[in-house]
Amino acid sequence: MENVAQAGKVGLFGAAGAAGRSIAAALAAAGRDYRVIGRHREPLETQFGGDPHAEIATWDLDDPASVAAAARGLKTAVYLVGVPYDQFALHPQQMQKALAGMRAAGVERLILIGTVYPYGRAQTNPVTETHPREPHTFKGRMRLAQENLVLDAHGKNGLQTLVLRLPDFYGPGVDRSFLHSAFEGAAHGTRAQMIGPIDVPHEFVFMPDVGPVVEKLTRTPEAYGRVLHLAGAGTITQREIAETAYRLAGRTPKLMVASKPMLRLFGLFNPMLRELVEMHYLLTDPVVLDDSALRALIGPIKKTSYDEGIRLSLEAARSAAAPQAIAA
User: Fold this and answer.
1) Which parts of the chain register pLDDT below 70?
2) Residue 126, preceding peptide bond in cis (omega within 30° of 0)
3) Which residues constitute the signal peptide according to the record (predicted)?
């Protein structure tokens, strides 16, 4: 593993989300300078403007010169760019443009933060990196196409590439999570809106645990040219998480659980809910990841227990609720 001086500068493309914040925090904790890249400067200034290690840049994925300029001077790029849930066809298109810009800029390493979507239904659990990639959904096929572009780019034009797959995630302030409503409900004393079934054991990764792993991977040359998994701290049900959050808040759980037929019905009026129907199989037949290959490569991985993760997520929801209550 390289030391910090050898590792060079890291760029976070699509840094404004939860994963970007986690990785940025880990880079700063290691004393490393990094660049955050997004479409708009204002949210980047808000989140990273106070960190002396952070350099802020914007880009336009449709402008090759803009992509190359955003990547220039970086040794490693971490790709975190999201697309609207109903526009997944953009994933491979945007990846192709980003790869061209990174090659033009002379980036040496690329880490794509991926998902379990390309596997399709789990044929075994837990799932190792050798599991067949046979997605039966449109979103899975688009993520697979994105992954293939990244993996095919390895060893060409001086670029080394890696795909790091994560399960569903949660954590303080992570609003794009199945579990966010449970923490909000417990913090406010309102009803949590959840998607069922909620009694099936599921795997979630605590987002603050992701950053230190990615920071290490940027300094681990032997990690590239492959896919690796980062698993959560075992499995737990959505109901257990919600009940724990409400108990910690001193409240009785109030849950509204939407079934797949309800999602179909709500989807008639809400395009985003309509898109969830396709991926509902992950709630009935979850994909649980095996990350023994990653641990063998970089050593022990800190994994926050669900009890601690729930407590911290609830505290963050309460802190966010307090200013709203004062304003009201």
Assistant:
1) 321-328
2) yes
3) none
